Structures are given as structure tokens and as C-alpha cells.
Amino acid sequence: MCGIFGGAPELISKDAERLLRHRGPDQQGRVVVTSKSGRPVVVGQTRLSVVYKEDVPTPMTKGDAVIAFNGEIYNWLEIRAELETKGHRFETPTDTEMVLAAYLEWGPRCLDRFNGMFAIAIWHDDKLFLGRDRLGKKPLFYTHDARGIAFASELKALRNLDFAEVPICNALEFYFDAFTPFSNVKSLEGGHFLIYDANQNSVHIERWWSFPDQTSEITDPDKAVDQFIELFSDACKVRKVADVPVTIFLSGGVDSSLIQAILKLDVSYTIQFEEFESTINERKLVLEFGERLGFEPRIVVPTREQFLSTFSDLARHIEFPVGSFSVFPLFCLARAARRDGFVVALSGEGADELFNGYYRNELLLREQEDLAPDFAGPYGTLCARYFGSPLERFCRMASRQGLAGVPMLLEYFGKSWRSHRSLGQNLSYLEATVFMQPLLVMADRLSMGSSLEVRNPFLDYRVVEFSAKLADDLKYREGHGKWILRKALQKLVGKDLGITQRTIKHGLPAPVNQWLFKSSAFDRKDWNHVLLGECLKQLALAHDSKQ
């Protein structure tokens, strides 16, 4: 995993290598190329050695092409073999060199062939190509004005940030799609690529992948479970491949437990807050699971003192609020794993989004079942007025500004809601394409802050496409979501464990409000304000240090 940056020198920090060193502590470098119009363009990278531990050119070049690459391509050996039949020769055993050769061979359509997580910057033929993986697991920010373009894995490597509030993001308490807290900086959206013409100083953006439209073509429960286990097992196994130690972030829930049931990694890491011991006891479930499978569960127990002492570090890495208290426990997990020598960790992001696992989804789906007879009856129009459409009910639940934020969300999400989809299908679409984005920000920033790479088997594009083909009752059944995942886990480890019997999802909460505001409520509003202030302070300090 790495950090990348570049573009017009006056838009990039002169100290970008140091500011992004946590993303790649093993190697750093930059090259400067000049376009035919005379514009200098920087291409820079910091490298974390994961698959090949020896030094390689950073950034890497082939002829007059230069690449800065952040991510992992899990099927890179197969693609390299195909490229070799077309005459390409390789000097390093790295996916970075394969990506550059693939771009030179196929252009932007090379992205279709990659199974992985990535943010790519390639300079070739007086053009800068920026590409981002399907779901946006790896970050890529850019700014463009009369001086040219600049890009970076993190905001701190960009200069002249102009803070401005975004109403839709305030309503959700997180940033998504192209939005950032700065009016002159955008995020290249997942599944998109950008081409910058240095001679024209022009930018073209194109979508190269879309979330699959649901079809409900997989209906047989037994066959579906077997098919899922086979597919998910491969998604896990390709993400275990590394030349460095690999661990897992494990809770007492279904998602990460499925990964561990397949891979049986030697060591796992779990968060347990003493404040939640009597209500959310992950320790007990994980220890029981470890005894059954024969691995070592390591329990991380964060304290208020640790939170206060690391708050500035946390804010420096996250860079902007994501509407969640989970930033601190994730930061603690990554730091503990890295201190113990691990460089890669697997995690369960994506399962709830793809398989209707959130409690808010379950509530809406239960309500839909209960209301269906009334909506279909003679008073259906009246019921619709009183309860609202499924989209309205979802927006009421999603708004962090109460009813005041609902009209804005209706207007925005209405563009993506489709009448031919079921409620469960529409929920999966919005959860995966919008509400998962802040979770991926957390997974990336708070792991890379400790130079740890996090991989997400549920977000293998093959698993995503499989989930879209499932009939609704293979996801939501008997009042709960993730039915197929629960059945798969029971088939792998038995039905008698606590993790296979658990139906309540707690997420990854932290007692931040208890520590800061002496409140037991999970209200994020004050927390977001405090975190945003510290994030802006840390960005200012980074920019004031060395330019």
C-alpha cells in the first residue's frame, strides 16, 4: 500500500513525501516531467512493501510513461501472463509494473480487468490518467484551476485548501461522492477515471463501473449458500497472499467471523471497551470462537487516557469527520496490530451493505411486510400519505438533522431509487454506493496511519455482483438481514457458537460521549464538531510546517 501525489508543483506540498510517509514508510520518491506546452508535472509516491519487499523504482517508469500506484491487484499474475504473450517484458515482480503495462496496452479499459483496490496515476503522452477502484476503497483527491491539476491520496499533501460547508453532507454527517470539506478539492468517485490534458489544461471524467442492478436470479437457498461459500473463500484467499504477516480485525459478529472461518489466521485483534462489558461483550464471543478454531485472539482495551493522548494523531489521519465514533477503536486496532509486526489485516466492511444487515434496514423491511396489506387495500393512498413512500421512510431514518434534512435527502437519493427494484434492493444500492463511503474512509486512513494495509473480501467485485443476483428472501428472512451469511457461517463452524446464534448488530461503538461530555447517548453531533475542529487544526499545522 502506498501514498501517491503529483501535478502542478505549486499546488502540491514540497514536503508531500514526509506528509504521506505513514502510507509508505519503506520508499519515497518523485519525478518531474514537462509537457509539450512547458507545464511541469510532478508524479510522486511513498511505498509500503507488501507483496515484494525489495526496493523497486518509486515512482516506476516504462519508456516515457510514469506511474504512481496505491493499492493491490489480486489477479495481477494472470494479467501479467496475458501481457507477456503480447510482447511486454517485466523487470520487477510487482503489480505496479503490470498496471502500467496494462494501461499502455489497453488504455483506461484496463481497469475492467483488475480485481483489487487501487488509486492510479499515470503520466503518458502529455496526459495524466487518474483511476479509482470500483467502490472507492483507496482514496484519490484532486484540484484543478488555471495553474493546472494536483492529486493526492490525502488532503494534507494539497496546498491552498478553502474550507466550505456542504449542506447535503451536513444532513448525513459525512462526506461522499465528489464532496470534500474544501470547495476547491474534489474526490474522484469510485468507479471513475479522469484524464487531464496538460497542453489544454482540461479535465475529462468518465464512469468505468456501476453498481450492478439487482436481478433476483438466484433463488435456491441451499445452492446459494454453497455458491457463496465457494466464491467468498476465493475472495478471502487471494487477499491473504502477501510477503508480510497477515492478521484479521475480528468482532463477535458474522462478517469478520466468516473470513476467519475460511482463513483460520493465527492471530486476531478485537476491541473491547470496559464501559460496554456488560452490554456489548465481544471478548466472550471471540474467545469461544478462538478456542473452537485454534487461533489466538488478542483483545485491545482502549481507555479514556489513550483517547485523549492520541486524539490529535487520529484527527491528522482521518482529515474530516465521517459521522461515526468508530474512528477511535479502528485506530487502536490498527496501531496494536502494527506494533506486533503485522502489515496486512483483513476486515469485514461491506457485508451489511450488500446483504441488508443494518438494523435500520431490518426495521424498514419489517415495516414494509406489516404495511403491505394496508398499502394494497382500499385505503392504500391514505396509508401512503401517512407513512410515506419507502424512500421517504428511508430518508427520515438516514437524516441526522431530523425531519428538516429529509427534503434534501429525498431530492438527492430519489435520483438513484428505482421503482423496478424491491425495497431490499434499493437499500443495498444506497447503503453500498453512499453510506459505505465513510466506512471505507475510516478503514483506509486509520489503518494507513499506522502503515497497515486493510483488505476487504466482501468488496471483491465478484461478491458484489453475486449479492445483486440474490432473491430478497436470501438476504432478509425471519426479521433479520444477512440470512445467507448466517447460514454459511453455521455450515462452516456449526450452530452452537455464540457468533452463529447472535442476531443483534452493535457495530463498533466507542464511549466518546461518556469521556468527553459525560453522556451515555450515542449522539454524534457534538463529537463531529469537536473532531472537525481538530481536523482543520491538524491540516493547518501540516501546511504551515514546510511548503
- Percentage of helical residues? 40-55%
The number of helical segments is: 21
Shape: globular
Mean pLDDT, all residues: 93
- Beta-sheet strand percentage? 15-25%
Q: Which structural category fits the helices and strands?
A: alpha+beta
Total beta-strand segments: 17
The biggest sheet amounts to: 6 strands, antiparallel
| Terminal Cα span | 25 Å
Radius of gyration: 23 Å
Features:
547 residues; 6-stranded antiparallel beta sheet; 21 helices; globular; 41% helix; alpha+beta
Could you give the topology of this structure?
Elements: E1 2-7, H1 16-19, E2 27-34, E3 40-47, E4 60-62, E5 65-73, H2 76-85, H3 95-106, E6 116-124, E7 127-132, E8 141-145, E9 148-152, H4 167-172, E10 186-187, E11 192-197, E12 202-207, H5 221-238, E13 246-249, H6 254-263, E14 267-271, H7 282-293, E15 296-300, H8 304-318, H9 327-339, E16 344-346, H10 351-354, H11 359-376, H12 380-387, H13 390-398, H14 406-413, H15 423-435, H16 437-448, E17 453-455, H17 461-469, H18 483-493, H19 498-501, H20 512-517, H21 525-545
What does this 3D model show about the protein?
The chain is of the alpha+beta class and 547 residues long. The protein is built from 21 helices and 17 strands. The chain has helices at 16-19, 76-85, 95-106, 167-172, 221-238, 254-263, 282-293, 304-318, 327-339, 351-354, 359-376, 380-387, 390-398, 406-413, 423-435, 437-448, 461-469, 483-493, 498-501, 512-517, 525-545; strands at residues 2-7, 27-34, 40-47, 60-62, 65-73, 116-124, 127-132, 141-145, 148-152, 186-187, 192-197, 202-207, 246-249, 267-271, 296-300, 344-346, 453-455. The strands form three sheets. A six-stranded antiparallel sheet has the order 2-3-1-9-8-10, with no helix packed on it. It has a six-stranded antiparallel sheet with strand order 4-5-6-7-11-12, covered by helices on one side. It is globular, with a radius of gyration of 23 Å. The mean pLDDT is 93.
